[in-house]
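Notes to self after the call with IL:
- keep both proteins in one doc
- input above output, always
- annotate only the second one for now

Protein 1:
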Amino acid sequence: MFSITNIGRTLLAKIVAFLYVITSVIFAGFPFGAGEDPAAPKDFTPVIRFAVCSDIHLNGEEDQPEAARLKKLIDFMYGYCADQSYTGFDALVCVGDVATTGYEKEYALFNSIIAEKLKEETQLMICTGNHEYIATRDYDASESARLFEKMEGPLDNHYTLNGYHFILASYDDNGKTFSGKLDWLEEQISSAEKDSGSKPVFVFQHPGPFATVYGSINWGDFDITKVLSKHPRVVDFSGHSHYPINDPRTIWQGGYTALGCGTLSYFETELDAIAGNFPYETENAAQFYIVEGDKDGNLRIKSYDLITDAFFDNEYYLTGLADKNFDYTYLKRKNRDSAPVWPAGTKAETYKNDKGETILKFTGAEDKYVVESYKLSVTENGIPFFSDNFSGKYMYLYEENQYEVNLGTLTQGKKYSVQIVALNAYAETSSPFSYSFTA
């Protein structure tokens, strides 16, 4: 696990911006991609389909929500596939942190769910995350590895399904890095490229390659980027960060393609985010990808929410990866976005709760992709009285675009002024929304 926690927010923001700009410009070129994201053609016909999830965090208790979510994911996939022209559910891929601590009862629960729900026609693919090693407190991985292998054999695997290659890399024996796996990974990718024509090569590991997908600054891995950056046809899937799957930054393209897989457990966001790293209702998280490939190597990737049984809007269509046709670079998507706007007729109001505290209620702003967060300030006679930063609700499809903020106990009869600014995923800010009221 890699975490940047001691660098000041300003410096960190500059580092992130520099890395995104440099990688996007070098590999994507100009122009920066105004307009719409690519869409799959209506006649897109898959020859392969698989689901990718991460960070299930089973604790061995059969009644935990995460166990029910994994079962629901598998059931949904078979139902979804049965209604498609291509009916295959070819693989279920879990990219680490299947377990919470690495205890045997957690693997036993996983095995029982797989035995109950997954059909023989669907290949199970898994790799380790950091939580698989927690049971061995000193990071002597021998015991954790032994238990993990009870699920699916070797810790590293290379599969071929319907002309597509799947390469899964687990941590080294120290449970922390991939430094001892780099030669193996390079060999596997090179071999897959020779065998697969112009098709993408799928790579899976737990932490995201550093400075790529949303979350990889705080929770990314340096080592694996040394290999992946040489291979533009790689489509890499990772987890570890628990960052929401429907944020536009969860797909990245530079020297290759990378996607963050969200979580079936709980959400996090940036460690130094203005709204804090655990968003509103953080435990209501159950997101995963459905990946489909056609005979020519074009990919359609859909994002699904098991909490609401609905697809997110962020569907991706990847084509021409062998020619470095990267439509989802940071700069291209940023250029397609614009600052959040307040809907026509946006209103705010206040009411008092049972404790006599004043609650501000308002309608949220809108953005092409997501409204990531809000900054709110309250003044009384021009003097700062209250301020708050909080996350948007974009990761919760069940939530209306309405917000409530507890302003505390106010002085009756005094006039207060509220100003709210909305920020999107690219830190672009809305015009301020202003509201005044008398307590």
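Protein 2 (the one to annotate):
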Amino acid sequence: MNIFSESKERFEMFFPREARKAAALLMKRGYEAYFVGGCVRDFIMGRSANDFDLTTNAKSGDIIGILSECGFDARLIGGSCGTVGVQAGTFGDKSSEQIEITPYRCESGYTDHRHPSQVKFVNSLEEDLKRRDFTVNSLAAAENFDGDVNILDYFGGKKDIEKKIIRCVGNPSDRFEEDALRILRALRFSAELSFNIENKTAQAIIEKRELIKYISGERKVEELRKLLKNGQTEAIFHEFYAVFSEIVGNFAENGIDSVKGGFCEKLFYILRFRPLGEFKKIISELKISSSEKSSIAEYKKIFDFCGGAVTFENIFQIISRHGYFAAEYLKIFGEYESFSHIFEDKAIPKTVSELAVSGEDMRNAGFCGAEIGKALKTLLISACSGKVKNDRETLLKYVKDIKDGIKHE
């Protein structure tokens, strides 16, 4: 084990006061208490952190008892893992972030390649850290009673941070057999931190990629969402194409980093060439929200209609089908500047509702049923393209002139 000293002032600025207080109260009662995991990694790297987890050799009941006596609201939230959720003040008060404190434990029997069937509480910090995924996440930090701040490093995590490497704790194949989600976490951390994946870990990721089938759609999309929000993901998609194919099948990895949008836009982009049926199946299996499915499906419809190229020959057809959503598509995937005058000129209709005539007008002109929608769409294309002026008298005259053509479409 290596022990590294850190600045007390920097420690106090980084780790929340209430979390440090909770750790100190446990230590005063004779227990160990350490910040652990990603927050320690981010502390060393000088990055901001969102979650500040603690681990201790105190049992759940002792954690709850000690902290409750001192004004914290502490409750068991982790079931068999023994995790205690702790907040200062009223439990659930969003003004106070929840701290999670978990007793030291070891795990075994990962029969579903995701969750341990046996959890055993132990008294050793090293035993607890040994079960964690990557060396950079297996660091622990604490302030002792002398005022010193120490980083405990059993597995070379600090050196891997310095070398910018993602490496499994112990045998990579074993880690991924235990929990297949670690495969996606390794890829996500690589992109998020701009770290390379160590050779043995990378080899095991590829060899064990079929285990991804054991991960729920919700967890797959959660990791994919975090990965795609990073600006530099193309390299990781290219290197681990076979792994990502287990989630989305064949995909286009080139050009992802150039896409301006977020998760929906990037997911559509890598899947844009898939046949519509396969496209819908993948989106459905990923368990994303209805609004996200709707946006991605709309992008796909535009792409398929125009063959990926929006031109002055097809732009008015696209607008007639998708209205102002076409502008959003162009801002991300096309040349919006070339067509901006259409969307920014309020005199040009982009939707049927902006036409100077209505469905009732079409009924009165002799159209019925589906013909009404066809007539309005024809008028929208003509008015949007400037072929006819968008005023009621002109549109009604025009639709009468082309009535036979609409009825026979």
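Annotation: The longest strand covers residues 2-6. Residues 155 and 293 are 42 Å apart (CA to CA).
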